[in-house]
Design a protein that fits this description.
single chain; six-stranded antiparallel beta sheet; 384 residues; mainly beta
Length: 384
């Protein structure tokens, strides 16, 4: 038997039918129902015109400014959204503003942002926006964290991408991005991108840069006067290693290595390479063997040969030049030693004893140095 009861405070609807349902009809058509388990089924929409409050266990509200409001409180999550398999998809842990996307599937996108925009503009865009009322230089902005577990059941942030506002001055803003990984328990910057370009490892991290490619490794700078160097910061910042290509028209004093394009000059009206060994750098040992090429374009003249520089342990510096290539008009290269002593050695390599146009000069170090005298002397280009 179904009954309707009322009191000063309550209206009670009681259904005692076989389905124990309370049904709501309009013009003889069912629009909503409540079953014996408390489930509410509505044929239309359910609207709310009031706000929720902090004490609500589970409530739906609405305000003109906030729109739809969902409020809940639980021991684990305040809000949990599940799929039709009763699996948690989205949750907000109790008392937090963290939105958590839950997934136990592998090789499936936990978050998919989709755009069907067909024009040339970027879409969809993923924006991390720090709206600070007091922005300052060197403020960190946002970071992407890659977190996992260790063998002691602890959370570990194994990798991060971190962004920074280096300069917040209007019109001259600079930004920086860090690529970090965990190394021996500590966060290490491996790649830094900012107004200085791209910095990899070095003094900022560990290890080095390895390029693995089925094609050639290419460097295409905007300016021809560029270089690839192997720089050892632990050795007073001097380039050291197996390959060093200098910028054009620059000096390479202080380099140690087994193969290096040290100098490449293109000058008119200059015919002489000067070699300067000073007490600051050279104290004894083998500087190395160098392949020297000197050519005069307008005169169709080219000469090349081996330059050897050495200092005995307790003796004086010395150098020799053995010409191998001699083509064109007067291509003889002569070596003149102006000062030879235990501490200083100066030399002059000169081609053709004449001024010229379209001159090309290059020095390549072929044999590595040793001892305190293993560094490259100062090679400079001069007119006669």
């Amino acid at each position: 038997m179904s009954t309707i009861k009322s009191s000063a405070e309550n209206l009670t609807l009681n259904a005692d039918g076989s389905g124990n349902d309370i049904k709501f009809q309009s013009n003889g058509v069912e629009k909503a129902s409540i079953d014996q388990d408390g489930n509410v089924v509505a044929a239309g929409t359910i609207s709310s015109t009031g706000d929720t409050s902090a004490g609500d266990d589970a409530a739906i509200g609405y305000t003109a400014a906030e729109g739809l409001i969902l409020t809940g409180q639980g021991s684990t999550n305040d809000i949990t959204i599940k799929n039709d398999a009763d699996q948690t998809v989205i949750s907000i842990p109790t008392g937090t503003r963290t939105v958590q996307f839950d997934s136990t599937d592998d090789a499936v996108a936990a978050v998919l942002i989709k755009s069907t925009n067909g024009n040339a503009a970027s879409a969809p865009d993923f924006v991390l926006y720090r709206l600070s009322d007091s922005p300052a230089d060197a403020d960190y902005l946002a970071k992407t964290v890659y977190r996992g577990r260790n063998d002691n059941s602890q959370d570990v942030e194994y990798a991060q991408i971190l962004s920074q506002a280096v300069d917040v001055s209007d019109g001259t803003e600079d930004g920086r991005m860090y690529l970090q990984t965990k190394v021996a328990g500590s966060d290490v910057n491996h790649i830094i991108m900012d107004s200085n370009g791209v910095t990899t490892a070095g003094a900022l991290g560990v290890g080095g840069l390895t390029v693995q490619s089925t094609t050639a490794f290419q460097v295409k700078p905007a300016d021809y006067a560029s270089s690839i160097t192997i720089n050892n910061a632990a050795s007073n910042g001097k380039p050291e290693g197996s390959v060093f290509m200098t910028t054009q028209n620059q000096d390479s004093q202080g380099f140690q290595g087994s193969f290096a394009v040290l100098n490449h000059w293109k000058f008119d009206a200059q015919s002489e390479i000067r070699i300067d060994c000073t007490t600051d750098v050279f104290r004894g040992g083998v500087s190395g063997t160098y392949w020297v090429q000197m050519g005069l374009g307008a005169q169709a003249t080219i000469g090349a040969g081996w330059l050897s520089i050495v200092k005995a342990t307790d003796g004086a510096w010395d150098m020799w030049f053995d010409q191998v290539v001699s083509h064109g008009s007067s291509p003889t290269i002569t070596l003149t030693k102006t000062t030879v002593s235990s501490t200083v050695l100066d030399g002059h390599l000169r081609i053709a004893n004449t001024t010229h146009t379209y001159g090309g000069f290059s020095i390549t170090k072929m044999g590595g140095g040793s001892g305190n005298g293993g560094e490259v002397p100062a090679f400079t280009l001069h007119s006669l």
